[in-house]
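Students often ask why we bother predicting the structure of a whole assembly rather than each chain alone. The short answer is interfaces. A chain on its own may look different once its partners are present, and contacts between molecules only exist in the joint model. In this exercise we take four input lines together and write out one structure for the complete complex. Read the inputs first and try to guess which parts will touch.
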Amino acid sequence: MIRKHPKPKGREAIKAWNHNKIIEASIEVIAKYGIAGTTISRVVELADVSRGLVNIHFKSKDILLKEALNYMFAEYNNTIDNAVKKAGSNPVDQIKAIITANLDPSILNKKNMGVWFAFRAQIRSMPEHLEMVETRDKCLTNHLLRIFETLNLEGGYKIPVKSVVRGFMVMLEGYWLDFHLHPRNYDREEAKNTCLFFLAGLFPKLFK
Amino acid sequence: MIRKHPKPKGREAIKAWNHNKIIEASIEVIAKYGIAGTTISRVVELADVSRGLVNIHFKSKDILLKEALNYMFAEYNNTIDNAVKKAGSNPVDQIKAIITANLDPSILNKKNMGVWFAFRAQIRSMPEHLEMVETRDKCLTNHLLRIFETLNLEGGYKIPVKSVVRGFMVMLEGYWLDFHLHPRNYDREEAKNTCLFFLAGLFPKLFK
DNA sequence: AAGTAAAATGTATGAACGTACATTTAAAAT
DNA sequence: ATTTTAAATGTACGTTCATACATTTTACTT
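Now the answer. The structure tokens for the assembled complex follow.
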């Protein structure tokens, strides 16, 4: 049962509170059972609300799924944007901030990865969600393209930016997958260091 | 409807033929609809066999899923082992062979990736399949550990082998994910070159 | 304190699910 | 040709699913 905060007062507030409770329960259920394994019964049980309430708040199961996914992505995009902002103007610091953010427990945790890979796995049969996934990809790609281009200029490198950005993102996502499969003995520090190690191969002066 | 080969003669042969037809149909359905979205009805329709036959060949749905997964993994492990063998004794050639094999259409295709990520997504709620996934990981890890250690010796490098192997595998898998999401405009050559580019950063003399 | 409208509840319904099993089909043996 | 028996079929059953909606509860208004 999800009950992070006590039940608030006021009709509107209670409604919003229940709405949120259902979304968060859905996320947890998706993470555990996958998209097709997510049933209203499981959501209802975890959210501790009545069966009918889900139908009132979300016109259909599909809409509920979509809102749950959206909820999660918004969090991710915010986290990354903030991390880059906080890192200041140094591109190397920005890269490090992005790596750290992507490996931080607030992003890289069982629940998030469960949902993440559940959606990615089913993308073939639910192409309507592809857009949302790609929006997240673009958020990260844009940051990285800009940063690596700056690195090229500042360091006098001639690294093929597009390929390296893709390779780098692919690596980050690979580490997510690694965590998803083996959350127990996962070493965030090692993952970070290996990312930096690979980058140091390409930009020796900057990442050493 | 799956009918690669004409129906054979002989009771045993027909039985085996149907068995195979059901497994291959299952793989296709899993790839399209995910684990929980895989229903007997869908498998039966695609395999073009009677509803009851699945129950006779596979005691339960779980067992069918397990056999389908096993079928796919066996193919993968064979392909990799053969690729390494064919590459000869040069470690750089072996690495290249592994990259090429992992990006080859016989491995990296919509069907395989659909099943692959479907299982990985659901691993949390079906831990009984973790073992099979890890067997595949070990097959690849063992090859790579040996090869990178040889590279260290031959080239006089002091690369942290374990980390690099993990980073490299993570990268390969990241490219699988990339393909899974965007099979249309996927560039196998570029993926291969970027892998080599990252390795060239670590082993400059060898991968240039 | 009484009335009212919004929100939440829980039961009902039909479709789809996995599985069991009596029946039919057809390959092999006589 | 007839018999035998393994293999395949298709219906039937109990369960679980998403959804609809009449009913009850509860926060707000008067």
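Check your guess against this: Chain A has a mean pLDDT of 92.
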